[in-house]
Design brief:
Blueprint (H helix, E strand, L loop, with lengths): L12 H24 L17 H8 L4 E5 L2 E7 L3 E8 L5 E8 L8 H4 L9 H8 L4 E5 L2 E7 L3 E8 L2 E9 L4
Antiparallel strand pairs: 1-2, 2-3, 3-4, 4-5, 5-6, 6-7, 7-8
Length: 176
Amino acid sequence: MQYAPIRIVIFSKPTIMKKILFAALMAVFSVHVYACTPIPAPEVTDIKPGVTTQKQAEEMFGEPTTINNDGNKQQWLYNNKDRRVMLVWDKTTKQLLEYNYSASASATEADQSLLCKLNAGTTKTNDAVRLLGIPNEYRVEKNNQLVMYRYKNSMLRLSFKDELLQNIDISIKAKG
């Protein structure tokens, strides 16, 4: 009686290679997705002098990195590698007086098609930020807001009063 050879293949070389390739691609894809997905920051336009409380600020940003006292004002600073937040409070009333936000550069050039959607007198601060993305700098003092975007060869400066766009200023660096 002759037995036919039985070959049981649990892992053949092509199967192992496919599984290793698949695992490597999944690892690379996972790292890419994780690295490209920033931790959501609070909406930069949610902070409002005279409205935002210290408790709300702590809920958004946590404990300040540094607290400075200067006369009747208290300055809260938050610093990390890609953004800086400064909140200035009245020490007596605990009311927010001023808010400054700055972040590292996000784009190399302004998208002209998006700039055309900005209209003086009708575009609100939070609509401009949603349209253009988180700015490099955002300053609020009383009822005036300044939103700035820095690009490789230009800078976009949006001035708001009572959260309505008043002025658009685009500065372009000369070549050479």
